[in-house]
Amino acid sequence: MLRSGPATSLARSAYRLTTSRGSRDASNLAFRTSKHLIARVEGLKRSRSLALTAYRPLSTSLQRYATTTSEAPYDHIDKKHEKEVANEELEHHPEEVSTTSSVHQVFHEKGVPDEEKDVDMLAGIYGDLVGAPPLKHRLSRWLTVVAQRVIKETFALNEVPREALYIGMAGLLPYAATSLSTVYLAWDINHASLDGQGFLISGETAEFLLHIIQPLQMGYGAVIISFLGAIHWGLEWAKFGGTQGYRRYAYGVVAPAVAWPTLLLPVEYALIAQFTAFCFLYFADAKAVVRGWAPAWYSTYRFVLTFVVGASIVLSLIGRGQIVDKLSRLPSPADRLRELRESQVAALEQEERERRMRVAAEDEEEEEEDGDEDEEE
Asked: pTM value?
């Protein structure tokens, strides 16, 4: 009897619902659905909308039951409660009655004459973070503690060997001494230019000492940069982190190749070049620590030393910047080389002139001798 596709699908879905192990409500619903489906088999054969029943039999059957059943709807109407609500007296609010009270407001709420302004939802949080003194003090205290912890961890030198720490700190003394001396001498030169005499020494003496101290600082910086590169040769020979070959030897070659030519530059350019070299060497050493080519404490140790050296160079540059227009220009190594070359050229020219004069004198003597011989004959 039920040989058509839609009818067969509906019958199977009803059978599955009645035999499934679902909940009790689902079984009762499927049973009620099957009663109405059997009665409408002929109508299903002629309905074009049931072409999808073969694909979704359960949902289609439930939809048909919900729209055509004569039984009570799913939502039960509580008539007793409706009577109680109907007998209640409505509250009256005459203050809300106006010519526009019955108009439905689209962009704002009823009873609000003007459009509501946007409320800053973060205003309270901002007030708690900034305006409230207790929280402000707590944040300040917390930031202070964090900063102290960061500084303490950054400059912690507990793992550094004591010998390396003491010798390294002692090696900073010449840099600090030359930088502080540069600052003082610059101040004394300024004092002399304003008052006519220096504070402790004369302006000429301060300038003379400054011309001695600055080359010392430049030369010491070149020595330290070369030494920092040579450390990697020692690590390579000790096979710390394995044998790396030319990559690690390159540190010891590049460092002095960069350091010593700075002595040919003017003082300001030389100090800036050495500051850049110190910074690049620090990053190279930190990368070597990450790669395992150097001890774990070496990066912190190098950071502290580089920080002090960099600060000293900056102080020297600031001091010289204050008196750059008051200093007589000291000959640089390049100027000395140029002067030497010019002196050599002048010496050669003088020698050539003397040789020509000597040759000319000899020729004159020969001519005089020839003249005397002719007269005697």
From this structure: 0.50
How many beta carbons lie within 10 A of that of residue 289, not counting itself? Answer: 18
Neighbours of 361 (CB within 10 A): 10
In whole angstroms, how far apart are CA 86 and each of 57, 78, 80, 81, 89?
44, 13, 10, 9, 8
**Which amino acid is it at 168?**
G
b/e string for 184-200 if b means 16 or more Cβ within 10 A? bbbbbbbbbeeeeebee
Place of tokens 């140790």: 301
- From 354, 341, 276, select the one nearest 310 (Cα to Cα): 276
Q: How many residues does the chain have?
A: 377
Report CA-CA distances (Å) from 257 to 221, 228, 230, 232, 274. Answer: 13, 12, 12, 15, 12
Tens-digit pLDDT string for the chain (377 aa): 444 444 555 455 554 544 444 444 544 554 555 555 555 544 544 444 444 444 566 667 666 666 665 555 556 778 888 888 888 887 877 777 776 666 665 655 555 555 556 666 666 655 555 555 555 666 777 778 877 777 777 667 778 888 988 999 999 999 899 999 998 888 888 877 777 676 777 778 888 888 889 889 999 999 999 999 999 999 999 888 888 888 889 999 999 999 999 998 888 899 999 999 999 999 999 999 998 899 988 988 999 999 999 999 999 999 888 776 666 665 666 667 777 888 888 888 888 888 888 888 888 887 777 776 666 66
CB 301 within 8 A of CB 160: yes
CA distance 195 to 203: 10
